[in-house]
Batch of 2 targets.
Target 1
Amino acid sequence: MSDLARWRGLAALVRDAIEHGSRAVERVQKETANRPFVVLEHIPPIAGPARAVHLVHDVTVSGVHGAVRLVNRAVGVALDAALALADERPR
Amino acid sequence: MGKRLEMAVAALNGAVGDYLARTGNGLATEMAFVKDGAPLAVTRAGLAAAFPDATSRAVVLVPGLMCSESIWQMPDGDDYGTLLARDLGFTPLYARYNTGLSIPDNGARLAALLEALVGAWPAPLDELLPLGFSMGGLVVRSACHAATLEGHGWLKLVRRAIYVGTPHHGAPLERIGRVVARVLAAVPDPYTRLAAQLGDMRSEGVKDLGDAHPVPLLDGIRHYLVAGSLSTDPRLAALFGDAMVPMGSGTNGLAQARGTRALPPGHVKVVAGVGHIALAHDPHVYAQIREWCEKEPS
């Protein structure tokens, strides 16, 4: 396996790790927050606002992790392009 | 730097090599023989160039989980391959492979590679000696099984096989890992479930190490086993073995007389005071290997 293929592999592995890691952390954050929210949503006077805050929380968490994954993919594409250029360069 | 890089890549392959192979990742190691750190072309010209003095006896050294070929190296730079070349005229071949793949998969790949090797060997070949360390021994067993199924010609050249620190009956560390992962997954907490998922990412190769090898030692070959023991106390030695492989597993059941097929006592050597990794480059282990190789198999 060439050095360049290994660099590509390393870039892909880091990209995969960030992608899967971000999804896993997002799921844990939502599940952890879900517990107090479920309790709060069963208390009649604050149930409505609690549901609204829960929704905002989940959307925010998804947004932050979505942004992380988006940047990760963009960096991955840029790295692939840079490695392709390096591959084409005469040695 | 090159040696360290290969060690890091070998460790990565052992941990998640099945994922690397499945996703076509360039870090996945292909099954190959290596010389001076580079894979060999298994063609007549490639082998003739690599081994201008190829002999009629070849020893194939198959390393263990997360190991590169440097695991064989002794402090003075020698290894079992170079010593067998010097003392008994073997030509040493060092296998490198993705230890994260399942053991049967690697066995089939090794069998195919050996078939190509025998076809392209630049000299008449009388003997092929597989020498596996740890998981490498199980890969050798799988390769012999695969060769039987495929009718490979190289198997006829194998008169004996040597297994060093090989967990024939599985490794308890992997079984403990399975239990821990199951317990963590059963706890209704997102963090423990995440920990269980992380633990479950270990490779197929690692998971295979938890079980006894599914195929028996092949008839028609003399099998020689070396097991390590950190303790000289028989009870502690039986329980902990070389710290990774218990005595019963390393000796294929001979030490505890409950194996599926016990070997003659002369075919099993227990080396006291040597840990698992050190078995791959220990002078006492080599002395035993040499003694076995000096005997002409009937």
Target 2
Amino acid sequence: MDDRLLAKELQAIAGERYVLTDPSELLAYECDGNTLFKKTPRAVVLPGSTEEVARVVRLLTANNIAYIPRGAGTGLSSGVVPRDGEVMIGLARLNRVLEIDLRNHRAVVEAGHTNLKITQLVQDKGFYYAPDPSSQPVCTIGGNVAENAGGAHCLKYGVTTNHVLGLTLVTWDGEIVRLGGKALDAPGYDLVGLFVGSEGTMGIVTEVTVRLMRKAQGFKTVMALFNSVSQASDAVSGVIAAGILPGALEIMDKQAIIAVELGPLRVGYPEGQEAVLLIDVDGLSAGLDTQAEAILRICREAGCTEVRTARSPEERLRWWTNRKGAFGAAGNLAPNYVVQDGVIPRSKLTEVLAEVAAVGQKYGLPIANVFHAGDGNLHPLICYDERTPGMSEKALKAGSEILAACVRAGGSISGEHGIGIEKMADMSVLYSPDDLAAQKAVHDVLDPHDFCNPDKIFPASA
Amino acid sequence: MLALNEQSRANVEMCVHCGFCLPVCPTYSELGIEDDSPRGRIHLIRNLASGRLESTSKVLEHLDLCLACRACEAACPSGVKYGVIIEDARASLEQTRERGFWDKGLRNFFLRGVFPKPGRLRWLARAMRVWQGLGLDRAAIMLGLLRGRMAAMAETAKVPDRFGSDALPAFIPASGTRRYTVAFVQGCVTDVLFGPTNIATVRVLAANGCDVKIPAAQTCCGALASHFGDLEQARRQARQNIDAFLAAGVDYIIVNAAGCGSTLKEYHHLLAADSAYAEKAKQFVAQVRDVSEFLASIELATPAKPLPLKVAYQDACHLAHGQGIRLQPRKVLSSIPGLELVELAESDICCGSAGIYNIVQPEMADSLLCRKMRNIAATGARVVASGNAGCMMQLRLGVKRFGPEVEVLHVVDLLDRAYGGDGAAGRQSRG
């Protein structure tokens, strides 16, 4: 099928405005939040309904054209970057709310609905949607499902898979299928669980049934400043050892603090801090003070230079907005960054962070660290300038070395950002060829001819 | 290849593609197309500048669709000044751009022929007043010469009986003890279409102990010229205003139009390379205050009578995003006894007015306006207050086109009424 005919057929489904084929317009779709890998798609189509998605998929498979679903393009592992002539199916227009069922704590939204807007829909009734990736004002629930997104507060409340109960999806050949639903734990295989985290390689999710949670009765947020990241890590271990399960336990290092404090989301932290630790405790109001006091004591014992609790909900929000803006603030450090997503046992924080720093020195690349300390999920932001020849490759290599260090420490290469293109090669560090072949065999049942987001996750050898 | 100046190039380099700007962008919210988001547009501009991309008509379409509302700037964790980028890119692209006869004519007429010359604008407004007085606008609508949107615009752009500048003397003394001496920026469109609001503003200032001076040599702030890429024209106007206002010797320079205020506050950037004016520009900028910013910072005279009204507040982009002024107008409104201020959903998303955007991009302007009016209807408010003439015109157009039947007023109009002013601005707003 030639490009002009393809454009016409796509326009007949989605409307002229929502089909992009001019090479100059396609350039904006050449990458996601990760700028290491770039390639423009053959075309972009933005369908307006599940039915339109299915029609687009049927058109493409009938003409032997592979496709890639895309939400808001905030992914960090190049999961929506084309490989070779795929058509991109953008889901940004699928942003309707289909049902809010507060009595049963459920909501059904289309895949292009943003994460934070779910909470905004129900917060005045005292509810919220728990998983909170830092990009939550932007990222879509469909993208969250694809990556099994986590977030600062997933330490206590679990990640996306724990909050998704049902899916409507379009299969590889354009059939509309419903999996799971409002009831818990559908009998038989957990197919919803299989799709969550499949990075768009098994079909296109178009509707999602999520669990709504009751907002906790009370919150206490503690902010502690430290002269070293290892002291902050000690405090994290201390909090967990004391039997406290905070809602979130987050650390930013000096470079990350500098970056975000230079932008409009600044808190006004005193200059020269090596680490900021943010701890949320939530639950029944009774008992929160005791927990907060214990945390304050533990932070002091770990040697913090300053520690206090948020004085108002506005202050708490400011601290968290600042923390969640850390990646996007990397523009204050360098023109480009790539963020790694390694997971390690919490007890190894200090030594792996030392390895991260050593890798940065080896390659001469500044690295800022922001991490979910409670989960041992590291986010080293490797800063570089793509315009300097060879720098992008260096950044990629540095990332792989950091991930290898995480695996050696008994961890894994990704906590929540997915594998995409960027970490494909690193999969072989974590898994044996047999492991990979088994996973690929599962994939092949659901996408037998590699139409859905092909050539992602699994290295070519698998 | 697109040549960018140093400042905008530095801002382009700061964008790391996180996408936090997407949900706050009106055009992305409407269309969901990456090229119509700030991140997408920066990506296009970045590649135009590096020579990887040619400025095709498609690229220009996406850049043209931007309202320059700058909502993205407040959302950007890196602090990218998107406004600087888009303005520079547009100015640079304009130099080589082929425009059609009507497009060019329209731009030249408004941007060069009318707005920079207050005298001509007034003549045009007088002609419109005569036209409207004879009922020719209604006749044209009845005869079907003006239809739909154009008809609604003709009905909305009513020229009041008098211009602010005709009614206001060069000096208005403070009532009671003088606490401040201020100079008032009349604006061009505000003066001819919202004269009563200007009169109300001056009355409110005088009631709050201000001696008000209105320098006769003031001219258009230059916003329209710079938004459409004519920076030389904007600089000429800036220099004229700096001379006019600094000569007045006042504590503050007060402006009641968000768009003008935001431009005035950036004169020091505009004239940074002008050795004769760089310092004067800084001095000028330090004195500029939006009227609600000023009123919220002083001890406000207590209103004489309560105004039992349910009011929704619409953030003007150039107040909220351009100047970071969000709380001050709300504080002024809340200080009026009896007035119930209700929150408007998406109050900081552009209404589609954006300079002459609603004329050159009617389709997008209409869908944003429709969305705005739906949100307004949901509040149940009887009055929508804003702080910018352009927004007020657009909202009045929205009342005509989509409803609900609300009164559109400036924040100071309401305060003026509470002080016992005639609230004349209100009379012409309902159609």
